[in-house]
Write a structure and sequence with these properties.
The protein has helices at about 20-35, 80-90, 110-115, 150-155, and strands at about 5, 15-20, 40-50, 55-65, 95-100, 120-125, 130-140, 155-165. It is of the alpha/beta class. Strand 6 (about 120-125) and strand 7 form a beta hairpin. The longest helix has 14 residues, at about 20-35. The termini are close together. The relative contact order is 0.27. Bound molecules: zinc ion. Zinc ion binds next to strand 5.
């Protein structure tokens, strides 16, 4: 039996979804709690489940060091950890996750325009007051998102399905 969690915040929720195994959901929450007050961060592995790439299945994740100088307010992957993952796991890399220790799970301007935003799937874990997730898909991964267009054309909020452990 799958549990559906509705998204919060201003990104339109359409028909897409991301499915995450329950054990991974719990371990991402735990690592984000452990790393607080710093933002926890990492990458997601998996694949799109449909041709329109609006449904995604996450099959794995890697926790990465937050190398940002102000790591309580933003995240930055450490190139020493990040580059080998890109090189080795390029075909499985589908997205990122990071936590917001003291704010809602709604993405910041920086989240929406970061260098990582070219990946299709993004999860934000708010710890306020206890772990809750917001997920969104990047619909136009090749565009520069720092200027121009209405956000609703770039991003699609995703329903989050927590699947029982396979
Ligand atoms: Zn953020």
């Amino acid at each position: 039996m799958e549990e559906t969690r509705q998204n919060q915040g201003g990104i339109p929720l359409k028909t897409g979804s991301v499915t995450v195994p329950s054990a991974m959901y719990e371990s991402i929450n735990q690592i984000c709690i452990t790393r607080s007050p710093e933002e926890g961060c990492g990458v997601l592995f998996g694949y799109p489940t449909d041709a329109e790439a609006s449904e995604f299945t996450v099959t794995g994740c890697a926790f990465l060091k937050n190398a940002a100088s102000d790591s309580c307010r933003r995240f930055q992957f450490d190139p020493v950890e990040w580059v080998p993952i890109v090189m080795n796991e390029r075909h499985r890399l589908i997205g990122t996750f990071h936590s917001h220790p003291v704010t809602s799970a709604f993405p910041s301007e920086e989240d929406l325009s970061s260098e990582w935003s070219c990946l299709p799937v993004h999860v934000i874990v708010s710890l306020l007051p206890s772990p809750n997730w917001f997920a969104y898909a990047n619909l136009q991964p090749n565009k520069n998102h720092s200027t121009g267009f209405p956000r609703s054309e770039w991003f699609n909020g995703l329903n989050i399905h927590i699947s029982p452990q396979a």
